[in-house]
Specification:
Among the domains are: 53 residues, no CATH class; 145 residues. It is 72% helix and 3% strand. The protein has nine helices and two strands, in the order βαβαααααααα. The protein has a two-stranded antiparallel ribbon. The N terminus is likely disordered.
Length: 327
């Protein structure tokens, strides 16, 4: 085994062995060197390695704010496992006759814990059923059947547990009932009853698995909405905010228009003053000169356009003649 020991320390039994899991650069900066540990410190090194492994970062704790309907998926598997294992101990009590009392008491404890878990699972399952609002009709049919079989299975196990607990108590207190002649046949009857109850339990569990894996029925594990619902709510909030902002802007625009109209009506109207005759004559003269200049420009364009076109045609013909000669 190879561990890292600080400089200046010998690998004796009382030395403090340092296990460094950092890279080589951090090892050099910390002044650690690698040495072979003698046999006297191997046991201590193993203990330290175990302690270091225990001191590594642990996974985060499960959430503690799970609502009551969400507890169904957390507790439903425990009663299934406990109730299915209980008949095994009854069978072991029949096989190993000298130790039948220990197996019988163990079976009673498993049945009691499983039945208590069945009550908890049915209570949380009924609460989880109430939050399911949408789905096909086949899903609700399976859910109703699952509920009926769950309640029936719970009641069957309640009766079997009470009866078997009374029987075990009598076998431990009354010697005549504890004899193999009486105890074995009654134990076989209870074993058959537990097998029948296990069939009901398996069918109920199958219906629950169908709801989850085929129809996608899920329990609510936290008070916060899932990402899809959170995004939907966020989008709806943004849409409402935008609509309210648009409505407020429209109200402000309408209010500003009304204010402008009121200000225009409140202003005194200024009547146009008549212009003197000299100004009217000068403006008419300017207008006539502008019209004359525009007409002259139009006439000049009309005269120049044919000349430009003729020159263009002459140039094209000349270029074509030179091109033919070159060829």
């Amino acid at each position: 085994m190879r561990v890292l020991i600080p400089k200046g320390h010998s690998p004796t039994k009382n030395c403090n062995v340092t296990l460094d899991i950092h890279p080589l650069q951090s090892q050099k900066s910390a002044g650690l060197v690698e040495r072979n540990v003698t046999h006297s410190s191997v046991v201590e090194g193993d203990a330290l390695m175990f302690a270091v492994n225990l001191g590594l970062s642990l996974p985060p704790l499960p959430p503690t704010n799970v609502p009551w309907p969400g507890m169904h998926v957390l507790v439903v598997h425990f009663p299934i496992a406990l109730l299915l294992v209980a008949p095994v101990f009854v069978l072991l009590g029949l096989i190993f006759a000298p130790r039948w009392q220990g197996f019988a008491v163990s079976a009673v404890l498993l049945l009691a814990l499983g039945t208590a878990g069945a009550f908890l699972a049915t209570a949380t399952g009924l609460a989880a059923r109430d939050i399911v609002e949408e789905g096909p009709d086949e899903m609700f049919d399976v859910m109703e059947e699952h509920e009926e079989y769950a309640l029936l299975t719970r009641n069957i196990y309640l009766g079997v547990t009470i009866a078997y607990a009374v029987f075990v108590l009598l076998t431990l207190t009354v010697s005549s009932i504890g004899k193999a002649v009486v105890r074995v046949p009654i134990s076989l009857i209870f074993l058959v009853a537990m097998a029948v109850a296990a069939l009901y339990l398996a069918h109920t569990a199958h219906l629950g698995g169908t709801l989850v894996h085929q129809y996608g029925v899920k329990a609510k594990l936290s008070e916060t909405p899932p990402p899809a619902e959170a995004d939907k709510q966020h989008a709806e909030t943004e849409t409402k905010d935008q609509a309210s902002e648009a409505a407020s802007e429209q109200e402000q625009a309408a209010q500003s228009q009304e204010d402008e109209k009121e200000s225009e009506t409140s202003k005194p109207q200024v009547q146009p003053q008549p212009q003197p005759p000299d100004q009217l004559a000068s403006s008419r003269g300017k207008l006539e000169r502008r019209i004359a200049l525009r007409s002259v420009r139009v006439e000049s364009r009309e005269r120049v356009a044919p000349i430009v076109l003729m020159t263009w045609e002459v140039c094209r013909a000349r270029n074509s003649i030179f091109r033919d000669r070159a060829v």
